Amino acid sequence: MKIGQTSVVYFVSRIFASLFGFIATIYFARLLGAEPLGIYNLVIGVVSWLAIAGKIGISGAITKRVSEGEEREQYATAGITLIAVLFIILLTSLLLFRPYVNDYLGHPATGYVVLILFVTLSWSIVTSLLTGLHLVHLEGVLSPIKIGGQSLLQIGAVAAGLGVAGLFIGHIAGLVLVTALGGMYAFSRFKKIQLPQKYHYRSLFNYAKFAWLGNLESRMFNYTDVVVLGFFVPSALIGIYSIAWNIAMFLILFSGSISTTLFPEMSKQSVNEDSQSIANLLEDALSYAGLLLIPGLIGGLILGERILRIYGDEFTQGTAVLGILIISALVRAYQKQLLNTLNAIDRPDLSFRANALFVVVNLSLNVALIYLYGWIGAAVATVLSVAVSLVVAHCYLKSLVEYTIPYAEIANQWFAAIIMGVIVYAGLQFENTHTVLGHNAATVVLLVGVGASVYFATLLVISSQFRTTVNRNVPFDIPLAHN
């Protein structure tokens, strides 16, 4: 399968998964309100932090070593063993400090934390193996199964009156389902389970000692603000912030699909010492990292209040936060491609330094700005810290790989997005004045659909590179996609 097609399969799968999640979240928001969602997201944030300690970069090391193609079985077994030992240590700690954990969460949820942590670590092993085996598209296919299973079970449990406990139960069950399915497929690709030697553990450790901070950086980008907000604001505001964050993260799905797909290919080329191929892959990644985020930012600024109103009137408080979070997602999209390349070319030490800077800046700014400005401060802290990391990662990578930033293609995307924005804004003003539809959700869906059509049609007209990419990867004929 072509890399572009693999990215599209992975992305489309994630889109369907996210749509399941959106529908379920709207249901929970309207039925339960913001506070239970705040508790749920705080628990998920805590688990994500604990998962860093449960992997300390080992899952990334598994992906790297398995993708190299040599002694895959031994590396897989060694990695699973190490993660199992770390989970036992975390389990013991959580049980010892259970009262304090419950106090922080504002809910007796330590037992759920343990269960979610276990299935999260198990799922991380499976995804690491699938990515290392160049089966990224299969991991993507499992995403809608995971989210769909979680959403259906959560809806059923909440409807049965289980409240926030239903959210936890559905989350766990969905992860168990996809872990079992993905695990069966991944392990079927191995010839047989082989016991690792000391050097297998040593090789994983040598990569993981730098890669663990990448996991920390990723979790900090996703959850530092939520976890720190837990000390300063009510659960209801955390729930609203989390909704805004989820919308921003929806827009970064395509960028994430690119980096996930390209990692094993770059890793393979790095073993072959083909720096030109790596540069070409990176330039392609940078060309399309903002493909959805750039129009998403403009569309979010115009339609943000109406989008949040779908979840309930109380969620419209997060309109300003949503715009800032989409900016952070856009910067993150480019930063992630650079860090992904550093790791793929076996320079996790440089990625470690960029990530370390992000960790320090992000944590410091979150504490300071949340204390001073509340949740607006949390969003601004995320933008500033990821921007600093982007600049540092670029400087490191530029010294190793001769690549060119595709300014022209990025400019084309901005131009098409501005044209889209003018039309969407005009449509919104017309609806506000004449009330043709008179239904908020219908208005949002219509304007998003019109905006997306205008954006991609304009981009096909003005960008020869985009036309070429579409022709190469779409299996059917698109009239505007001819050079």
Summarize the structure.
The protein has 483 residues and is an all-alpha fold. Helix content is 84%, strand content 0%.
Notable features of this structure?
483 residues; mainly alpha; 0% strand; globular
Account of the 3D structure:
The protein has 483 residues and is mostly helical. The protein has one domain (3-405). Helix content is 84%, strand content 0%. The chain is built from 19 helices and no strands. Helix 2 (34-55) crosses helix 6, helix 4 packs antiparallel against helix 6 and helix 9 (198-232) runs antiparallel to helix 16 (375-398). The two termini are 24 Å apart. InterPro entries: Poly_Biosynth_Transport (IPR050833), Polysacc_synth (IPR002797). Keywords: Cell membrane, Membrane, Transmembrane, Transmembrane helix.
List the helices and strands and how they pair.
Blueprint: H1 3-32, H2 34-55, H3 58-67, H4 72-96, H5 98-105, H6 110-132, H7 136-159, H8 164-188, H9 198-232, H10 235-251, H11 253-271, H12 275-288, H13 293-309, H14 319-344, H15 348-373, H16 375-398, H17 407-434, H18 440-462, H19 464-473
Protein name: Membrane protein involved in the export of O-antigen and teichoic acid
Subcellular location: Cell membrane
Main location: membrane
